[in-house]
Amino acid sequence: MINSSSDTPSRAGRPTARRAPTRRPSAALLVTALVGGLMSAATAPPASAADLAGDFDSTAVGTVPSGWSVTGASGDVTVQDVPGTVDRGLQLRDTSSTSSVTARASFGSTAATVVAGFRLRAAQTSATVGVHLDGTAGHSVTVALGADGQLYTYDGATRVDLGAYTADRWYDIRVVADPSTDTADVYVDGSRRARRLAFRTATASLGALQADVSASSTGTAWLDDVRTGTESGPQGWPYLGQVGPRPALQIGTSQLLVGAETLDRDYTSYPAFSPYLGKLGATGVRLQGGWAKTEKTKGVYDWTWLDKIVDDARAQGLKPWIQLSYGNGIYTGGGDSGLGGQLPSSAEALAAWDAWVRAMVNRYKDRVTEWEVWNEPNLAGIPVADYTDFYVRTATLVRAAEPGAVVFGQEAGIDVTYAQNFLTLLSQQGKSDLLGGVSYHPYNADPDDAWTYQQVAKLRALVDQYAPGAVVRQGENGAPSTAGSFGALGDTDWTELSQSKWLLRRVLNDLGRGISTSVFSISDLNYPGKVNTKGLLRTGTDKSVRYAKPSFYAVQALASVFDSTLAPLPGYHWSAAPATALTVQAFANRTSGRQVVAVWAATGKPTESTTSTATDLTFTGGDFADPVYVDLRTGAIYDVPDAGWSAQNGTYTFRGVPVYDSPVLIADRSTVKF
C-alpha cells in the first residue's frame, strides 16, 4: 500500500498528523538506452488533446495525418492499410540502420495527469519501436516493442520488461502519467503491467506523444487509435496512484456480472474479448444458450462453441449464467432465433426444445447453477399466460436434471403488471417453488431515475410475496458510447465519457440497494449492418477488439473496490453544502466497519463535462480512520489532507470535496486496493 501510515485517527476521534506522500526521485536520462531520438524536424502546428483522438480510418492512404509531424528520410511515415486486417493505421517504415523514423503530435503543455491510449503493432520482433509521452526535457514515459522480442517500459533509468510480444499483433496500450509525482502506470490489453514507475526524465508538464523506430534497427510498425486526455484532481490533495485492478479470480465473489450476449448469433467474438473478460473483475457472466447454433441438424448437438466459452469463463473466475432462449428454424413452428423472437409452438418443436434443454443442463450442470428462461417475452408480445406455461415447462426440465439449479424468469423493462400476472399464474399452478429469481432490463437515460427504482421496489415486494427468497437481478442494462448506436438509448447522443459516468452511477445505485447487477456488454455488438456500441470494448467490423474504452477501466476500478467484503448501508445520513441534488450510496466493510461513500451530482443523463464543484460533505455515523478520495471514472486516488476533514462522535466532515456527475468516493484507505 502506498504511503500508508500508522498515524491515523481513532474511529471517533480527531485526525492526527500524517506524512505527506513522498515524491519519487527522478532518474537521470539513460542516453544509451533511448528508444529512438528526439525530434529534429520542424514541429507541426500544435494539436489539442481532442485532436489526438483518432483512428486514421478517414485519412487518405499515403498521406500524413493532420496535426502530426514526421521524419522519414530513412523510410516513410504515412497512413496505410494494415495487411491482413480491416484496419488503417499510421505506418512507420524504417529502412536504415543509422537513422530513425518518427511521428509526433503535440497536445499542449499540461501539468495535469495525462491518460494516453493507443494501439501498437510491429511487423517483426527484431526492431525497436517506441511510443513516448514527452515533457520539455525529452521522453518521460516510454512503452516499447524491443529488438529482443520483449515489450518493455522504464522505471527511471531502469528498463522494466512486460513480457514477450508477437509480430503482426495489435497491443492495446494505456498510460496514466502524473507530472506532480513524476510517476506512471502502464496497462496492456486491459491489464495493469506496471505501477508507480518513475519518469525517465522529470518534468513539470507533458505536451507531446511521439512514436518511432530506433536508429539502430530497421522494420515496420503501425500506430492506431491514438487518444490523449487530461484529468485534474483536487487541488492540494496529494496524488497517491491508481485503483489496483483485480481479476475475477482474485476478487472471488461479488454482486457484479458482465454481459456476453449474442455469441449465439455471432454478433460478437469470444476469442476476441476473452483476454479482457477476467481482467474486468466482474465475477459472473450472462450467456445465451443458442439452440439454433447448437442444433443445426435435427437431433444432432454440437456443443464445441459453448464448451469453450463456459470452460474459459470459469477458468478466469466468472460464474456463467445461461439463458435458455430463442427458437430454432429447422423445426416448423420452432420459434424465432433472434431479438423479439416468439416461443416454439408446434408439438415437434416443443419436443425438440425439451430435448435440447435436458441435454444442455445435463451437459453443464457441474459447471453452471444459474439459468434463465427466454429473453424479454413481454417486449416480444408473448402473452403472459403463454410465457408462464413455457417457464414452468422449461424450469421443470432444468430442476429435474439439476435439482439445485436457480432458474430465473425474465422481462424487458420493469413491467410490474406483467410480473404480477406471471407470479400469480405461477402460484395458481402451484409452481412458485420453481422460481429462483426474476431479472429485468431497465433502460433509462437517467441512471438515478426515481421511478425506475420505485418499480424495482414493487417487483421486489411481489417476488417476496409469491416466491420468498428468490433473487431480483438487473440482468441487462447499458449505455452506448457513440451517437446513433443501434438498440436501447440509441436515440440520444453519447460519448465514451458519458457512457463511463452512466455505467458507474447505475451500477452503484444497484449495489447500494443490494441488487445483483450486470453490465451490458463486454464488447460492442455487430448486428448485420449496424453496431450496438454499449460494449466496454470497442470492436472493428470484423469483431476484433480495437481497445478497451474508458468505461472498461472505470468498471474495472469499481469491481476492485466493491466486492463481497462490502455491505450497503441503506438510509445513510449525510448532508452537503452547498445544498445540491446529489446521490449518495454508502457501504461498510463487513469485518472492520470502515466505510466507502460514493457521491455524485444527480444531473439526469450524464453530461460531457468533468467540471466539479467544491462541496462540504457531512456523514453522520461515519467510520473512517484514514480517508482517501477516489475518482472511480479515472481510477485516481488522492490523499485527503488533515485540514480537509474532521471527526467528532461519529460525525465526519469533509471540506472542499470535488463533486461532479460521476461517482467519487470518500473511502477508508483500507478498503481501496492500490
TrEMBL record:
Entry superkingdom: Bacteria
Keyword annotations: Glycosidase, Hydrolase, Signal
Residue span, Glycosyl hydrolases family 39 N-terminal catalytic domain: 296-424
InterPro entries for this protein: ConA-like_dom_sf, GH, GH39_cat, Glycosyl_Hydrolase_39
Signal peptide segment: 1-49
Pfam families per UniProt: Glyco_hydro_39
SUPFAM superfamilies: (Trans)glycosidases, Concanavalin A-like lectins/glucanases
Region spans: Disordered: 1-25
Keyword flag Plastid: no
Protein family: Belongs to the glycosyl hydrolase 39 family.
Name of the protein this chain belongs to: Glycosyl hydrolases family 39 N-terminal catalytic domain-containing protein
Source lineage: Bacteria, Bacillati, Actinomycetota, Actinomycetes, Kitasatosporales
